Automatic annotation (TrEMBL), chain A:
Residues 78-282 form the ABC transmembrane type-1 domain. Keywords: Cell membrane, Membrane, Transmembrane, Transmembrane helix, Transport. It comes from Paenibacillus yonginensis. One of its GO terms (cellular component) is plasma membrane. PROSITE patterns: ABC_TM1. The keyword Chloroplast does not apply. This is Sugar ABC transporter permease. One of its GO terms (biological process) is transmembrane transport. The keyword Hydrolase does not apply. It is a multi-pass membrane protein.
Length: 299, 325
């Protein structure tokens, strides 16, 4: 694969060229919508509505972003999302490590029973309504608990973490620690956690992204608009087209401008909500890849 | 601390597996690892409360659930709700939609990550390759809401770029999202767009674990890159591809529910209604929520899914590609 192009035989050259062309096309197809959204968000509302934006921003302005910042629900949604994501992810990681460590131990009596209990929930669930009724009976409707507890851990992440523990922590280490009088609690705290940076980063990111992006729990469990996470606010604006345009200007004569702002607002909103993830993303990309690899190992 | 120490100190090598009968040994092991049970306590509690209690609660599918009477007080009605569903006008429509949508998605989106991985495998490790990987992974982390938001804007009949292009060629704009015939294609295409990069990671990993000696031998035999791709790379990643395909088949009825719900509108509902969205509408979104009926439909789906998963796994064991659990 490292051979220089000029040394290749003719069929190989054709292969290489075709390969590069196809991948470039795919690359552009995936990239274009992303660029288009960003460019639109920086264009004037008139240019967006009349479809003048093709690749680069037309009549660049920050109108759209100004509209986003005027929209109070976006702010409260943003704050709520940060809280739900931070707290939720903390609980997620904590619970996952708690479950994964015992499952990684060969000498954990009853390990298989627990594994079966965990795995079974990935294949069969009580369903939407019984879960909803449970959350309701627990009095968690319309509270932050409904955003955090029902999804406190994901079995798939427990499995990934367990596999990582099995691979990185040799039995000898545990035996040596036990000889020195170290108990399980201390072993987890002093030995397991310090070497588990990569896996904790991976699952924290999986959970974090899932928490940040989720809207359905909020849709069914939350009633008050000021508790809505960003994704639910977004759903109203992007999907249901439910925009209160009076916040942009009280002047009824401005109807056309407000209408145009409504479209522009959507593009800017898409950018604003996705940017936090996309900023973090390049830095942690290698960890995501690692997570997929660990997850693919059978254990 | 003294007692703790006594419990966790391993026995000398010769006595590590004491020759006592099973029962006594089990007790010994239980006592020695009580801390592991303490660690497991919270996750286990979570599992019982949020996973197993709802399974138990699913019995309301066999009762006429009345809020004031609770799960226990409501009357048993046997299979009434299941019969009602199977005989209802919606049954065939939504079952067909669910099956078709997921099969379409399974078949259409499966080859793309493999092709991308194969292609990337023959690229030099340069900036371009890195950019391709970075850009193709990125959409995976965009939320469903934003994803559908983008789709709606791009396909908008008035301002969307797709219709702008269509009108340059002199055609009338198409309102894609209100065409029932296009629902599945939009769903599948956007799914490929969003997940192709991320799903190819696992194949790239599999490709990198192929023994280089195989490639060298093939080169010695005068194989071209294309031939190597077909005879070395493809067989090399086949096992993992088969496992993934099987895994996906087992969840064939679990189509991306949130995404479908967001893509739906009254005009495309004819092909866009699937079991999961129907369950949500009957159970929670409707004016007169029918908990029992909704649960019955969900249970119907879950049972079929479970049967599928188990049979598919059986087939996998037979074909010796390894079982999933």
């Amino acid at each position: 694969m490292e051979t220089a192009f000029k040394n290749e035989s003719l069929p190989d050259r054709i292969f290489t060229v075709v390969n590069y062309v196809l991948i470039t096309i795919l690359f552009l197809l995936i990239l274009y919508p992303l660029i288009y959204v960003v460019s639109s968000s920086f264009s004037s509302s008139q240019a967006v509505v009349s479809g003048e934006v093709l690749l680069w921003p037309v009549n660049p302005t920050l109108e759209g972003y100004r509209a986003v910042f005027q929209y109070k629900l976006v702010w409260s949604g943003f704050v709520n999302s940060v809280i739900y994501t931070a707290l939720g992810t903390l609980v997620n990681v904590f619970m996952t490590v708690l479950a994964a460590y015992p499952l990684s131990r060969k000498d954990f009596f009853g390990k298989n029973v627990f594994m079966v209990l965990f795995m079974f929930t990935t294949m069969f669930t009580g369903g939407l309504i019984p879960t909803y009724l449970l959350v309701k009976d627990l009095g968690m409707l319309n509270s932050i608990w409904a955003m955090i507890l029902p999804g406190a851990l994901t079995v798939w992440n427990v499995i990934i973490t367990r596999t990582y523990f099995q691979m990185t922590i040799p039995d000898e280490l545990l035996e040596a620690a036990q000889l020195d009088g170290c108990d399980d609690f201390r072993f987890v705290w002093k030995m397991v956690l310090p070497v588990s940076g990569p896996i904790i980063a991976v699952i924290a990111l999986y959970y974090g992204a899932a928490n940040w992006n989720s809207y359905f729990n909020a849709l069914i469990y939350l009633k008050d608009q000021d508790m809505y996470p960003l994704q639910l606010v977004l759903k109203d604006i992007l999907i249901s087209n439910d925009v209160d345009t009076t916040v942009f200007s009280g002047d009824p004569a401005d109807a056309a401008r407000r209408e145009a702002l409504r479209v522009l607002l959507k593009y800017s909103l898409i950018v604003v909500t996705t940017v936090p993830l996309l900023i973090v993303y390049p830095f942690v990309q290698k960890y995501f890849v690692k997570g997929v690899m660990i997850g693919s190992l059978k254990g | 601390m003294g007692m703790l120490q006594e419990q966790v100190t391993p026995l000398p090598a010769g006595e590590r597996e004491p020759a006592v009968a099973g029962k006594k040994r089990a007790l010994f092991r239980l006592r020695r690892s009580w801390q592991l049970y303490v660690l497991m306590a919270l996750p286990f509690l979570y599992l019982i409360i949020f996973k197993y209690i709802p399974m138990y609660g699913a019995q309301i599918a066999f009762r006429d659930y009345i809020v004031t009477k609770g799960i226990w007080g409501s009357n048993w009605v046997g299979l009434k709700h299941f019969e009602r569903f199977v005989h209802s006008y919606d049954f065939w429509r939504i079952t067909k939609n669910t099956l078709l949508l997921s099969l379409y998605n399974l078949v259409a989106s499966f080859p793309f990550p493999i092709l991308l991985a194969l292609g990337l495998n023959y690229m030099r490790n340069g900036i371009f390759k890195k950019s391709v990987q970075m850009v193709t992974y990125a959409p995976h982390f965009i939320s469903v809401v934003v994803m559908i938001g983008i789709v709606k804007e791009l396909l908008d009949p008035r301002s969307g770029i797709v219709n702008q292009v269509i009108s340059w060629f002199g055609f009338a704009p198409i309102d894609f999202l209100s065409k029932p015939g296009l629902f599945k294609t939009i769903y599948v295409t956007t799914d490929i767009w969003q997940h192709i990069g991320f799903n190819c990671i696992i194949f790239i990993a599999a490709l990198s674990s192929i023994d280089p000696a195989q490639h060298e031998a093939a080169v010695m035999d005068g194989a071209s890159k294309l031939q190597r791709m077909f005879h070395v790379d493809l067989p090399g990643i086949m096992p993992i591809a088969v496992i993934l395909l099987i895994l996906n088949t087992g969840h064939v009825l679990d189509v991306g529910f949130e995404k479908v719900l967001l893509l739906q509108n009254p005009l495309n509902l004819k092909t866009g209604e699937i079991i999961d969205t129907y369950v949500y509408k009957v159970g929670l979104a409707s004016q007169v929520a029918n908990y029992s009926y909704s649960t019955a439909i969900n249970l119907f789906k879950s049972v079929i899914n479970l049967i599928l998963l188990i049979s598919v796994n059986k087939i996998a064991q037979r074909t010796q590609h390894g079982s999933l659990w």
